[in-house]
Design brief:
heterodimer; A: mainly alpha; globular; B: alpha/beta; 6-stranded antiparallel sheet; 5-stranded parallel sheet; 9 helices; about 25% helix
Chain lengths: ~350, ~375
């Protein structure tokens, strides 16, 4: 991690605060109009997908219905749910867009997400041992973790995690690895499990029981389409999220270095621990603007559609302070993620022989 | 009836499962709104049918609420919700029409005066026109007429006339058989709100004695005095209703007590003036205040720049929170009244109901929060 003095960190903090204050002062009707337009698009896609699905015995309609429902879930999870829960629209004082009461269309309960993602991940970003999002306690992605023979099959784990991503995310707070190590008891997690069953059950009931049943003669088609839509969302969101922190140059941190850190140090960690990818307007929308992961991590509660607008300013601040700004095409960034998962599945000796020492 | 209730309950339960929200009907609002804003389910929509100029700074908005609105009693108020520059604002106003107008024509009226520096009242005057739709809450408040006729004295000041207009109209329509006196204080004769309506009521409702007093027409202000009260026949037997600015209310209370009117016969309703937005530096502000934790039934006082979260924790409460630095919004909760200052921006919040982050909000005077 780049070493900066407290004075330099203070200057970094001020530079970034200036960008943030400019946006805050400008929040208003334009942002409200934007999120409402996205919500209308989501409603239209979901209603359209659900209505078309029973007619899925006509192949092109099946594809259209599945894609429509899949896109609706992607937009709701990424651009609406994730961002609303970060408090990006709390200033609108609209009860249906409030960070603490919003419930999203995925198996993970919003309460659990707010604890594990908003608090743990965004506060302790990429601190090994404290940010459980780093590898999801399932993948070894840096040599901070000792190699174990089981890691050699971790690419298979990665595929499974991506396919069942909503269930992986919803079980994240169970902290199964700590239960296995005997650090906590399953009993301590009963309230969480109850919440998981309620929300996960609700989602499974809706997509895999209710909608197929009310269209009984074509139930298998509706079930297949709903599975397809969920799969589409799972693969896409998992891919986007992996590109955010596990690319080649995304840094990791020691808990010791981050004790009692200043806001400036926290900013530095967000800048160097996150990575962006480039793409069209639609790629940004469908990724919930997590394609601007750096901007998102520095300013998690600014409306996400503002990230493209402030990106140049953030890059200028990075250049001024000599901090790297990790970005590249989607294909390139994802390629480095796959490479990281694969190379860290190897024992250290073999890995260093193949690709040399990590820099 | 029971069958229908079970049916709606089951439907509501199903809606919650399908749409992940406690108000499932509102799921379709974003689409319905584009068809017709009156179809919205998340709040009761009310369309502006007409805007009437009362005085230079007061207008009456005639509203047609959606039919599911539950109605009101004379003297009650409502919250209205409007969106200004992307932000929803809720404010309370008295209904100035009679319940009969609602039951016969489905209309209600709000009579609203511009408050100097007030964000919402000025916006209503400048932007709310015929055909626009705002959100209307259910009526509340206990500024209510006696159930059986008995002598009444109203003392109103300025726009404090609004709930009393509703009550007088109701009394006239229902032929409330008892002496009724209105002492209405206005700055100048030009500031009389709903003058024609008042005169029309007085002409068809003979029990009413109407006394409009201008306070600032001469060099020496002419405020409420004991002679005004002594001139009211049978004062001690009257129920007294007060609505107006604080100065008038305090004076009226004092004089009424002097005249021997019992506390239990005096009913007051307040209206507050807008607090202008404070943008000065944090250091210049007098910080702290009395904090009411609404849900916990607790009260605490603070001085200096302690945040609501710190005050809550010092009082033994454990509100949900996360980063304690204004990032994660885990601690966001509803402030129902009062002003807070954002520790990060130094800016003051509005005075109405809104969401605040406990860890970076410092009370600025009395505050009530849902903790």
């Amino acid at each position: 991690m780049k070493q900066m003095t407290e004075v330099q960190l203070q200057e970094l903090e001020q530079d970034l605060n200036t960008i943030r204050d400019e946006v805050l002062a400008d929040l208003g009707e334009r942002d409200a109009r934007y999120i409402r337009r996205v919500i209308r698009l989501h409603r239209a896609l979901e209603v359209g997908g659900r209505v078309m699905m029973p007619f899925g015995f006509i192949p092109p309609v099946f594809v259209a219905a599945t894609v429509s429902l899949g896109l609706s879930k992607i937009i709701e999870n990424m651009e609406i749910g994730h961002n609303v829960m970060h408090g990006q629209y709390d200033w609108m004082n609209d009860p249906s867009l409030h960070s603490q009461t919003y419930e999203w269309d995925t198996a993970c309960s919003s309460d659990s997400w707010r604890r594990t993602h908003n608090f743990e991940h965004h506060t302790y970003t990429n601190i090994i041992g404290k940010d459980r999002d780093y590898g999801y306690a399932l993948l070894r992605l840096s040599d901070d973790e000792k190699w174990h023979p089981a890691h050699s099959l971790q690419f298979l784990n990665y595929i499974l995690l991506s396919v069942f991503f909503q269930w992986g995310v919803s079980l994240h707070e169970l902290e199964f690895e700590r239960i296995r190590r005997g650090e906590i008891r399953l009993r301590d997690k009963l309230p969480f499990l109850k919440d998981f069953l309620r929300k996960g059950g609700r989602q499974a009931f809706k997509d895999y029981v209710f909608f197929p049943l009310i269209t009984l003669p074509v139930a298998p088609i509706v079930l297949a389409g709903n599975l397809g839509a969920n799969l589409m969302r799972n693969l896409w969101s998992s891919t986007v999220i992996f590109c955010g922190h596990f690319t080649q140059d995304a840094e990791t941190f020691n808990a010791k270095d981050c004790e009692n850190e200043s806001k400036g140090h926290w900013y530095l960690r967000q800048l160097t621990g996150s990575s962006n990818f480039t793409g069209s307007k639609w790629v940004h929308l469908l990724s919930g603007h997590l394609s601007y992961q750096i901007e998102h991590h520095v300013f998690p509660d600014l409306p996400a559609h503002r990230y493209p607008e402030i990106s140049d300013k953030v890059q200028a601040v990075c250049r001024k302070h000599g901090i790297g700004y990790n970005t590249g095409s989607f294909g390139h960034q994802y390629g480095t993620v796959v490479k990281r998962i694969l190379t860290y599945s190897l024992p250290d000796r073999l890995r260093t022989k193949l690709i040399g020492q990590p820099t | 009836m029971l069958a229908r209730n079970t049916q709606t309950n089951a439907l509501h339960w199903l809606g919650k499962q399908l749409f992940n929200r406690n108000d499932p009907a509102a799921f379709f609002d974003p689409l319905l709104e584009t068809l017709d804003p009156m179809l919205v389910q998340s709040q009761t929509p009310a369309r502006v049918e007409q805007v009437i100029e009362e005085t230079a700074d007061t207008r009456t908005f005639v509203l047609k609420p959606a039919a599911r609105w539950a109605g009101f009693q004379a003297g009650q108020h409502v919250n209205i919700c409007v969106e200004i520059n992307g932000v929803k604002h809720t404010r309370t106003f008295s209904l100035s029409s009679s319940p009969e107008l609602w039951s016969t024509q489905g209309l209600v009226t709000l009579t609203i005066k511009r408050l100097p520096g007030g964000l919402v009242t000025n916006w209503l005057h400048d932007h709310l026109g015929q055909g626009q739709v705002l959100g209307l809450g259910e009526a509340f408040g206990d500024f209510l007429l006696p159930k059986t006729p008995q002598p009444v004295l109203f003392i109103a000041g300025g726009s404090g006339i609004t709930p009393i207009l509703s009550q007088l109209e109701t009394m006239a329509t229902r032929d409330f058989r008892a002496p009724v006196t209105l002492l209405y204080f206005v700055r100048t004769q030009r500031d009389v709100i709903a003058e024609e309506r008042l005169k029309a009521i007085a002409s068809r409702y003979s029990a009413l004695t109407l006394n409009i007093i201008a306070t600032n027409e001469n060099d020496k202000p002419r405020y409420l005095k004991s002679q005004d009260l002594k001139a009211v026949p049978g004062l001690k037997a009257r129920r007294v209703f007060l609505c107006g600015p604080k100065g008038l209310m305090d004076l009226a209370n004092e004089l009424l007590h002097q005249q021997g009117v019992r506390e239990k016969d005096i009913h007051s309703t307040f209206f507050s003036s807008a607090t202008p937005a404070l943008n000065a530096d944090l250091a210049d502000q007098v910080l702290g205040g009395k904090v009411q934790f609404g849900k916990s039934n607790l009260e605490a006082s603070s001085e200096g720049d302690a945040s609501l979260l710190e005050i809550a924790e010092a009082s033994g409460l454990k509100p949900r929170h996360g980063c304690r630095m204004g990032i994660c919004h885990q601690c966001s909760c509803r402030k129902t009244s009062g002003t807070v200052i954002n520790r990060l921006t130094g800016k003051a919040s509005g005075s109405g109901e809104e969401s605040v982050q406990l860890c970076i909000s410092i009370p600025h005077g009395p505050v009530t929060i849902d903790v």
